[in-house]
Amino acid sequence: xxxxxQFLEHEKEIINRALINNLPAVEHSVVNEAMRYSLNAGGKxxxxxxxxxxxxTLGSEDESIIEVACALEYIHTYSLIHDDLPAMxxxxxxxxxxxxxxxxxxxxxxxAGDGLLTLAFETVAKxxxxxxxxxxxxxxxxxxxxxxxxNGMIGGQTxxxxxxxxxxxxxxxxxxxxxxxxxxxxxxxxxxxxxxxxSESQLKALSAFALNIGSAFxxxxxxxxxxxxxxxxGKPAGADQVRAKATYPAVLGLAGxxxxxxxxxxxxxxxxxxxxxxxxxxxxxxxxxxxRTK
Length: 294
Hints:
By secondary structure, the chain is mostly helical. 72% of the residues lie in helices and 1% in strands. The protein starts with a helix and ends with a helix.
C-alpha cells in the first residue's frame, strides 16, 4: 500500500527543483524575479503531481514527464498571478504570502504571468524535441491550449467575474467550475496519459476521473472559503462571500455542497475502474483533495 503523504512530498520536491531550474537565466530582470517569487510561494503542486501520477499509473517511468508537469504548474501559477490582480479578484494574499502585484506592481505581475504562460509552451516544445516525442508533444499542446484559453480558464474567469452579485442556477455554477478549474485538472491528467502512450479508452477514463475530481475540488474550495481561516488556507477566507461570488454553498448550503463533493468523488473513482491498471495512486490523491482542510 502506498504512503500517499510520502509520495506527494517526494514528487513535490522534484517538481519544485525543476520549476526553478527551468526558469530562463535573465540577469537583473524584475519580471524573472517576480516569476521566481510566485513559483517559490509554495502550493500543493496538484496539477503537476496528477500529470506524473497518471503516467506512473499507466506504467511509465520516463523522467522527461517532469517537463510536461512543469508546464502545467507554470500555467496554473500564471493564472493565480492574474486572478489576484485588482481588476480581477483583488486578493492580497496567496499561498500564505503577499500576492505578486503587492510585492512588485500590477504591470510586473501581468508580465510575470505572461512569462510563465509562454514558458509553459516553451517547456513542452523542449519535451517534444526528442526523437519519437513529436506526436505526443502536439497532443499535449492541444490539451494545454484548450484548457488555458477561452474554452477553459479564460472563459471561466470571464463568466465568474460577470456572475458576481447575481443569483445563478446550479447548472451555471457547474459551467463556471468546469471551465475555471475542471479543464486544467483534466489536462493535467490527460497529458500524463498522452506522455505514457495511453490508449483512447484509457484517455477517456482518465478524462472522466479528472473532470469529476476537478468539480469536487472546486466544491471543497468553495466550502473552505466558508469554513476555514485565512491562516489555514493561505489566502483570504470569506472572499467569495465579500464579493458575492457564485458558489456551491450559496446555492446548495454547506451540507448540500459537501454531499455533492462526495458524490463527485465517488463518480471519479468509478471512472478509474475502466482504466485497466492498478489505480491506487490516483485514488489516494482524489481522497486527499476531497477531504482536505486547506
